[in-house]
Write a structure and sequence with these properties.
The structure is a homodimer. With about 190 residues, the first copy, chain A, is of the alpha/beta class. The first copy, chain A, is built from five helices and eleven strands, in the order H-E-E-E-H-E-H-E-E-E-E-H-E-H-E-E. In chain A, the strands form three sheets. A six-stranded mixed beta sheet of chain A has the order 5-4-8-9-10-11, sandwiched between helices. In chain A, strands 1-2 form a two-stranded antiparallel sheet. In chain A, strands 6-7 form a two-stranded antiparallel ribbon. In chain A, strand 1 and strand 2 form a beta hairpin. Chain A is globular, with a radius of gyration of 16 Å.
């Protein structure tokens, strides 16, 4: 997705420790118009999959998932929560996820009411690095007996193993920009073709 | 907003401990079409305020804020983060918030880059109870020297003190549904006129 790659080139900042900072437009401050383009691109890619539900994970996936759902005719979005809160029922699907950004493990959960065996689920998230979040979300889909049609990722770090592992596992993974390499010294970002 | 009140009557569940569970359509599973109506209503209320930025807090505010921003012609959304993460700069505005739902205090923060003295900020959130989140967000706006034009809340618990306190402090608070009372035994929900 050229518009996205150009935006990353212009506005992303490469930080030490394999951090790609895109918080001026993607996941702290949000360019809602860009989200609209992203949503339409995910729709173009998955429009023939009869998607019934979009599944994402809090926090930065939620906005992208909601605007993507508009492109799919306002199908429901479900976001997995990261910690047990007072108003979630105990009747949940859960999975354990290791976070690259935060360096800790956490549990994710979705109420059983909101993922069903009849669902055809598209996972949406902003970043893919080691793929832990997508693996955890895919596990929730599997626990529900639903069909996983694929995962749509805005930015994949192609030099980390998540993308390769997920594709080899048979999941249809569509990343709108795949960063092949990046350099915190020069700021250079190279995309996979 | 009658459509919202009707939806709450139909689908919300009143739980003990003053919990109003609306996670089938508002903050776990999301009805994106309803979010669209909510966004248009916030636009109707604040359209003359020359809003330049929408400020919310992770997680469940993000989707509502993004879709509301579309109604305002795709102005930027900024969401405050709840814990210091590896790719947030130290150059942040912070405030302390006590959570009703989770029963713990936490820090919220926004990068100084994304709130500026020229901004006219509309705060958006899904729930208002004791008003701690809005107070914390208003503090970030104040620290930035920006103008707070008001706060748009989807559901206010009118029997908790946040709404009254915020209105008395001079903040323009617009809640689309104000629950005057609710009963966990009977499930009855009464709205303020």
């Amino acid at each position: 997705m050229d518009l996205l790659k150009q935006r990353i080139k212009n506005d992303a900042v490469v930080k030490k420790g394999n951090v790609l900072k895109v918080d001026s437009f993607l996941n702290h401050q949000i360019d809602v118009r860009l989200y609209g383009e992203i949503g339409r691109e995910f729709y173009r890619l998955f429009q023939n999959e009869n998607v019934t539900k979009i599944l994402t994970i809090e926090a930065s996936g939620i906005g992208i998932a909601c605007i993507t759902a508009q492109a799919f005719g306002c199908i429901p979005v479900v976001f997995a929560k990261k910690s047990r809160s007072a108003n979630i029922s105990n009747d949940v699907y859960t999975s354990k996820v290791a976070s690259f950004t935060h360096g800790v493990d956490y549990d994710i959960m979705v109420s059983k009411e909101y993922l069903n065996s009849g669902d055809r689920v598209l996972i949406i998230d902003d970043f893919l690095a080691n793929g832990e979040a997508v693996k955890g979300l895919a596990s929730l889909v599997s626990q529900a007996g639903a069909v996983l049609v694929g995962a749509g990722i805005v930015i994949e770090k192609g030099f980390q193993p998540g993308g390769k592992e997920l594709r080899e596992s048979g999941i249809r993974l569509e990343s709108l920009a795949i960063v092949e390499s990046m350099d915190a010294e020069t700021g250079e970002i190279v995309f996979r073709d």
